[in-house]
Amino acid sequence: MHAWPASEVPALPGTGRDLTIHDTATGELVTLEPGPVARLYVCGITPYDATHMGHAATYNAFDLVQRVWLDNKRQVHYVQNVTDVDDPLLERAERDGEDWTVLAERETALFREDMTALRMLPPRQYIGAVESIPKIVPLVERLRDNGAAYELEGDVYFSVESDAHFGEVSGLDAEAMRLLSAERGGDPDRPGKKNPLDPMLWSAARAGEPSWDGGSLGRGRPGWHIECVAIALEYLGMGFDIQGGGSDLAFPHHEMGASHAQALTGEHPFARSYVHAGMVALNGAKMSKSKGNLVFVSTVRRSGVDPAAIRLALLAHHYRADWEWTDQVLVDAAARLDRWRAAVSRPDGPSADALVEEIRTALAHDLDSPAALAAVDRWAGLQESAGGTDEGAPGVVSRAVDALLGVAL
Length: 409
Ligand code: 5CA
Ligand code: ZN
What we know:
This protein has a single domain (1-409), classed as Rossmann fold, CATH 3.40.50.620. It has helices at 53-71, 87-95, 100-117, 129-145, 174-183, 224-235, 250-265, 297-302, 307-315, 327-344, 353-364, 369-385, 393-405; strands spanning 20-23, 28-31, 37-42, 75-82, 125-128, 149-152, 155-158, 200-204, 220-222, 240-246, 271-277, 280-282, 285-286, 323-324, 348-349, 390-391. It contains 13 helices and 16 strands. By secondary structure, the chain is an alpha/beta fold. 43% of the residues lie in helices and 16% in strands. Bound molecules: 5'-O-(N-(L-cysteinyl)-sulfamoyl)adenosine and zinc ion (ZN). 5'-O-(N-(L-cysteinyl)-sulfamoyl)adenosine (5CA) binds at residues 43-46, 54-55, 57-58, 81, 83, 228, 245-246, 248-249, 277, 279-280, 286-288.
């Protein structure tokens, strides 16, 4: 699958910082030590509806991760998937009497447009679940042959007990896991499972559903967690720097993925850190496709709002916070964008050297984008009140805001 076009990232004067970020597995801030090529896997969308502000906020967080790394002279190997076959997608296509492949292609195309408009850096590989099936089948066969997976009425389940590190990503107890598993695509109550938490690796073909040749597994389709494992192992290998997504992916998705990969390879860890963004809500409830309380990026764009204002609305919240989308959030962001644009439109201004360092420091410390915005606000305030004689300072600010925050002034 193809990704979307990259916007250029200007080089800045001075030096970048090492990224310190909150790791869900340890519950602590960790200073990452990526090699010259930092490796990032971010879970992609299930394309049965348009990109909403919650998705955009999560992708914004991992876009900042890349910008900190790039500024710190690292290359970034970024991989993202598209869950282009899964229960919710098939259910939506069925409900609307639409071909599921047409639905998935249309929403994926819209996602690419939204990501491009928001200036999110594209992944090097953007890979669909369907195109990954030939890679997934041998992994499931291997897990079964190693005794880490078992068959139940034609379906194949992963045995969570096969990984000694199971539970270390989310740190949840068994009861909490059971509740979340039922809520998030698992089937803890299915009779015959060795452990209620065991997730599906391969689902045997069912009437009226698409299915693929699964070799010795028989016809069927892949489970959700193994999809991301197959893609991450293929392109990044074990021990990549960050696996990212929203906080609703910590369990079961990232927990199960880590255990699949660890059971497959005998190595630990799958990812060196697991990073999770908070949930964006609308009208008091988590924005979600299944609930339908959504504000779409594309709808707001089509109403004439500058995508840079949408991006500033996302950046105004710390990535780990749960927050509420309101009309006011966007009004404030649009006002900030106008103010910043006016401030950089003059040929000279207050020195920008300290500001560049402030933005760098804020982002390198657990992606503190609200602190970065406050620093730019202060510079814009100085420009408005006293101005300055530093020729070219507005240009430096403009490049820093572009390179580190992804906002084109
Ligand atoms: N395809 C899987 C991942 S492999 C999936 O979860 N797709 S998704 O379309 O449901 O979500 C895409 C990303 O957006 C995930 O990282 C998810 O955690 C995040 N996300 C979903 N809803 C919200 C929300 N309300 N606020 C913040 N992030 C969200
Ligand atoms: Zn995933």
